[in-house]
Amino acid sequence: MYNGLGLRTARGSGTNGYVQRNLSFAKPKPQGTFSYDQPPPKPARRPNADILLHRSKRQIEVECLTYQEELEGSENFRKKQLAKLEAHVKRNSESALKEEKETEMNRIKDAFGISDTAVEGQAFKFESEKQREERLARYAEEERLEKRRRLRDR
């Protein structure tokens, strides 16, 4: 029990005996607290100059955007802009992609230590064409000799 509130003991009550205050109780507001002896309320603050400047800039920006939307809505303007954009994209996309890919490949070459004289796919050619022809000719010769030996041994 605390300040005369709650159970004397929690035994047999089925609770832990913790006492909470009633949060749903609304206290009555005191009335008649106004006095002429109190100082007058503070005057309203003057608005911040930066905020006013920002608001005016924002208004101008909104007007510009509405005018831009009006212009873009007209068909002639829209067609001209699309033609310019297509020409620009066509001109720049190919060269930009090539340059981008080239720089990427150079970075990869540097990372793996590949020399500039390396030929792509050369690592998978274990022998040159001339060596391949020589090897095939040797195999053919060995095969022919083997057939002769077999015929002789019979």
Automatic annotation (TrEMBL):
Q: Which Pfam families match?
A: cwf21
Q: Which InterPro entries match?
A: CWC21 (IPR051372), mRNA_splic_Cwf21_dom (IPR013170)
Recorded GO cellular component terms are:
spliceosomal complex
Q: Which stretches does the entry tag as region Disordered?
A: 1-46
Please list the residue ranges annotated as the CWF21 domain: 52-73
| Keyword set includes Nucleus | yes
User: Which controlled-vocabulary keywords does the entry list?
Assistant: mRNA processing, mRNA splicing, Nucleus, Spliceosome
What CDD domains does its record include? cwf21_CWC21-like
Please tell me where this protein is predominantly located: nucleus
Q: Where is the composition biased (Polar residues)?
A: 12-23
Q: What PANTHER family does the entry give?
A: SERINE/ARGININE REPETITIVE MATRIX 2, SERINE_ARGININE REPETITIVE MATRIX 2
Q: Which family does it belong to?
A: Belongs to the CWC21 family.
Q: What is this protein called?
A: CWF21 domain-containing protein
